[in-house]
Amino acid sequence: MPVVTAQAALYRDPQVFEAERRGVFARAWQFLGLEADLAAPGDYIAETIAGFPIVAVRGRAGELRAFHNVCRHRAGPLVSDAAGTCAGGEFVCRYHGWRYALDGRLRSATAFGAADGFDPRDYGLFPVKVEAWRGFVFVNLDPGAAPLMETLGPLDVLLGNRPQPSGVLRRSHPIGCNWKVYVENYLEGYHIDAVHPALAEEVDAARYAVRMDGAIAVHEVPATAGAAEGVWAWMYPNLAFNLYKGVVMLEHMRPVGPHRTQLDYIYLHEAGDPQLDGAIETSERLTREDVWICERVQENLDAGVYTAGVLSPRHENAVAWFQARNAELLAG
Q1: CA-to-CA distance for 54 and 290, rounded, in angstroms?
Q2: Of 22, 56, 111, 231, which has the fewest Cβ atoms less than 10 A away?
């Protein structure tokens, strides 16, 4: 029997998206930012991950800590910028000025007044698990989550002793489709000939292979020309490492809503490396082509004619794994 795809309703139902926020993204390691932006005590980075505002900070002793970017008083934000430094070595709520130590303890409920039964020790920040790997900061909202390396182990082996470039260039692209539509497109090379004609001339598409190694999908194809090395790796549920000649590009596939996704790209490169332009040109071209097809797929899913299809055992094994993993987490 053929492997049947996930139902079309899973790509458009707001209730499914809300279930995925808590059942998938709140239980998986999520990329937050670069450790280089947390060089000194008090430095922080902040991001919203599937609707959860998160902030990570370098503690006084150099340790990494992360919290929900939510004051315990009336849910005001602790920080409003993507990166910065905590003035005075503490978080100060932007709403009513409550002050928190970098370890999350409530230092002062500013001008709150006397209140029977109020104990500041009961109102520390909500903590989030945080770990760093190769200069990348990851968070996990599940307090019982396994260590990060249990997920990233295969990717660590794949990258080996590859040097980490120090230059950083960022780009973002909005897409009008459900996050799973884009991820599933990323997880197979079946569409290369039809959607990426220039890439098809630069690689041996007939030998394109995707293998699952734990929660890592490794893409490999012989590259005969162009900027791509012919190696891509994806980490469940929504982060990719795209290897170009001289450049490592992180691709964060961030869900924004049931029909909206944002791609955040970070190009890591050596300053002045002429290969950066080729990597950007190639990735931007591929993105334009993928955005076009993914938005057309979303339109057809929304139309209501298509309910489910079948998956190719030759080309779409990683898509099958992804759909099964999502179903497992949502059922749990």
Answers
A1: 29
A2: 111
Q: Which of 140, 144, 178 is nearest to 54 (CA)?
A: 140
Q: How far apart are CA 301 and CA 245, in angstroms?
A: 37
Please compute the mean of the pLDDT values over residues 119-143 and round it to a whole number: 97
Query: Taking the model in full, what pTM does it have?
Result: 0.95
- β-strand partners of 203: 223
- Tokens 């919203």 identify what position? 48
* pLDDT digit string, tens, across residues 272-327: 899 999 999 999 999 999 999 999 999 999 999 999 999 999 999 999 999 999 99
28, 67, 114, 144, 295 from 20: Cα distances, Å: 11, 21, 41, 18, 20
What are all long-range contacts of 154-157, with beta carbons under 8 Å and residues at least 24 apart? 154/213, 154/214, 154/216, 154/218, 155/216, 155/233, 155/235, 155/241
Strand order, beta sheet including 260-269: 167-175, 260-269, 247-257, 239-244, 228-235, 216-220, 209-213
Q: If you ran DSSP here, which 8-state letter would residue 265 be given?
A: E
Q: What is the pLDDT of residues 22-56, one digit of tens each?
A: 999 999 999 999 999 999 999 999 999 999 999 99
Does residue 162 register a pLDDT over 90?
no
φ/ψ (deg, to 5) at 7: -70, 145
